[in-house]
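From the shared-data thread, chain only:
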Amino acid sequence: MMNSTAFLPTTDGGSVRTTPVDAVALEARAAALCTRSIKTTSKRAALHTTIRCIDLTTLEGIDTPGKVASLCQKAIRPDPANPTIPSVAAVCVYPEMVEHAVTSVSGTTVVVASVAGAFPAGMSTPAVRVADIADAVGRGAGEIDIVLNRSAFMSGDLRRAYDEIVAAKEACGTAHLKVILETGELGSYEQVRRASMLAMAAGADFIKTSTGKIPKAATHPMVLNMAEAIRDYADQTGVIVGLKGAGGIRTAKQAWHHLVIVGETLGSDWLTPERFRLGASSLLNDVLMQIQKLDTGHYSGPNYVTVD
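Structure, as tokens:
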């Protein structure tokens, strides 16, 4: 496909270098970082940070305006009985539901994100993908989640994959662009590192692990791999890109591991909704139960929280 050390173009006419990944060292470091514990005094802050960085998502064929409105209310006030709980970062819906979500979150800090560009496979013509993005933005989406053209990338047509992200970024206008790599399909850490650098060079505001439609996406080594790519890209260009983990993140403990990996690799400045997101449908409920445990000393069980 390319040499292990390769140069990719950037939209400003420059280039960035992508280098080989030491898989053994990567996995060892990820494992070591995940042994870090969060002390009781810091646990509440970590839980609140997790909530502020969540993209609360519904991407089902049976989504309705009412279901989206209910999800938006939970995004704004995750625990109606506890006003100290912050809102989540965003709600993520299909383009057809964007207008309903925009109405529901109006006047709040919650952003409306939309998948677009022939999500989740991305197997459509560039014109159709761009039109889908423009439609979602026109409906009011402030963030767009697209998928990398893995067919082009895996067949070695990096220029096509790059150009399609550039076109998607242009179609976004002022909306932020998240590029989903679908890491579980790319095969190796080096492939994911290369895809990360390509997406960032093409203008991605965030790189994201997965659509959430396949297993083994946001693994600890993979998130570390992408965080290191973001660090390398910032070192080479001065451009800040965010990271979104999605796919298999269901518990507060898993979220803490991601916080540690990102904080240790990129610094505490990345632990904000502007630079870090967690895509999960069930994570929020577990975090709320952990906060309730801190407040009362016991778990109240799943009936304490609403079903997403």
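The first strand starts at residue 6 and ends at 9.
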